[in-house]
Specification:
The chain is built from 4 helices and 12 strands. By secondary structure, it is of the alpha/beta class. The chain has a 7-stranded mixed β-sheet. Strands 5-6-7-9-8 form a 5-stranded mixed β-sheet, with no helix packed on it. Strand 10 and strand 11 (170-179) form a beta hairpin. The longest helix is centred in the middle third of the chain and has 8 residues, at 108-115.
């Protein structure tokens, strides 16, 4: 048995746009669960995603009123950090982890002590940076799907989402670029679309 998790972060709704791009909803059809790694802003975004699959979300600084935004209410789907066992792996979800690390203060070890004191996760899904990333840091497989609406903090446009596939104790993350027709695999070697826009 395997588990497929849809990954999304930093939606910034309704600042970026009123609702999610419809391509996201189509792309997540058939996933087992959805992780939102924070900066949701308005929690009706989770209602939209929950029509597709069960949702877990990290509480980001955007939900806590940063930048003068309204503080979002408590919600059982939203916590500062989640740690769950999936297919024999411990998977953490939180808004930010230091990728790359910036010792001595911004280290994975310190973030794990703070957000996952129960045990070190095998995988951590995070957001915050608006930059897609899949990296090993201090023995942890870290996946950041980027932002679907503000990629690399550029103005509103098609960004990225991700998936995490877990099967028999192995995890594989992937990042996908949103396009008019749906999603395509993110090309890590190409100049991204947001840098080509004028």
């Amino acid at each position: 048995m395997s588990t497929r998790i849809g990954l999304i972060s930093d939606t910034h709704i309704p600042e970026a746009r009123k609702t999610l791009w419809p391509q996201i909803i189509d792309a997540f059809e058939g996933v087992d669960m959805i992780f939102h790694a924070g900066d949701i802003h308005e929690l009706y975004v989770l209602d939209e995603l929950e029509k597709v699959a069960p949702v877990w979300a990290a509480r980001g600084n955007g939900e806590d009123g940063s930048g003068g935004r309204p503080t979002q209410p408590e919600d059982p789907r939203v916590k500062y950090a989640w740690l769950m066992e999936i297919e024999g792996m411990w998977v953490g979800l939180t808004h930010y982890v230091p990728v790359p690390e910036r010792p001595p203060n911004f280290t994975m070890e310190r973030w794990i002590e703070r957000f996952f004191p129960e045990r070190k996760p095998d995988v951590i899904v995070s957001g915050d940076t608006h930059r897609e990333a899949i990296e090993w840091v201090d023995g942890v497989y870290c996946v950041n799907p980027g932002s679907p609406t503000y990629p690399h903090n550029y103005d509103t446009q098609y960004g990225t989402i991700g998936f995490l596939d877990i099967d028999q104790g192995k995890a594989e993350g992937s990042v996908w670029q949103i396009v008019d027709e749906g999603i395509v695999p993110f090309d890590w070697d190409a100049v991204p679309p947001w840098k080509l826009r004028r």
